[in-house]
Each structure stands twice: as C-alpha cells, then as structure tokens.
What does this fold into?
Amino acid sequence: MPLTPLPQDNTKRYKLLYTVAGINHSMTSRCSSAQTDGNAVLHFQACLAALINTLGTNVTWVGIEVALQGSNVFNIISGWTPTAGTGGAVSLVDRPRAICYPGRTSNGRKSKVFVYGTGSTYVTPDTYEEDPLVTAPFQGFQGLLNSQADFWLGIDGVKPTWYFRNTIKTNDHYVDSVR
It folds into this structure.
C-alpha cells in the first residue's frame, strides 16, 4: 500500500546554502520544532569539518536559512561564517556530480541528502557506488547524519536509518536546471 503524501512543510527545515563555481545549491535538513538556530549552525559546522578536504576550492558554504513547521518561507539566520573548500577545484565535468546519502524511516519513508562540490576525483566512471563506505570524509558525514539528534529527520519527522553507503553520479535535476 502506498504511503500518504505529506506536505513539504510537515517539519521544521534548515537549509544550508552553498555555491559550486558560482552555481547555487542547498542542502536541507528536516528537524524537530525544538531545534535551535545555534544548534543547527553547530551541526552544519560538524558536516563541513567532515567534508572540508573533499570540497573544491571553488565551493563555498555561504549561509543557513530556516523555515518553521507549517511554513514554506525560509529566513536567513545568523551565526554562520562563509567557508570555502580546501580540495582541488571542481572541474566543469564534475560540477553536476552529486553524492547521494540514502536513508529510510521506520515508517517506510525514504530520505536522501545530496552534496555537490566534491573535488574532481571521480572522473572515470559515470556512476560510482561506494558500498560500504570506505572513504573517511564520507564515513564521517554519514555518521553525523545518524548521530545528530533531532536533525536530518525524514519528512514524517522520524529519524531515518542512514545507510552506510552512497552513490556518486551526475544529478539529472542539476543538469536540467543549467540547460
């Protein structure tokens, strides 16, 4: 039996805004209504620390926005310092490539987190699956998805089990948006 669709504003959401070679991206974390802006900044800083060496020098994590439960209006929050990656610059061929971390809640809802802007180290295969995760920064990020309390929830407000794997491939939504 299919799951009943839930509205996008079903949970409070924090959105990390970042650019890859001047193109805007965002990474959204659903969380409990009790989550504070200060705690969200700390969670995203931990994610940055895990990935900083794989993010290209032309990648900047710019700021954070929040939308309260029941609202689709995102407002910028204070406390974030823009930070650039320290890995090699992301080449043109790798800019549409995303790392997808999948998970599933106990209610059966799928969750995904996409990260763009990793360095140009996966240029050979069009699709690269890392199962199980063996790259330390990717393991660190996946560990944060599981361990950050009341953060990285599913659309139903339940903490997913984030799988110990990811997929690195060209993202169709990204390709469509730049055409």
Observations:
- The longest strand covers residues 12-20.
- Residues 17 and 63 are 5 Å apart (CA to CA).
- Helices lie at 37-51, 136-147, 172-178.
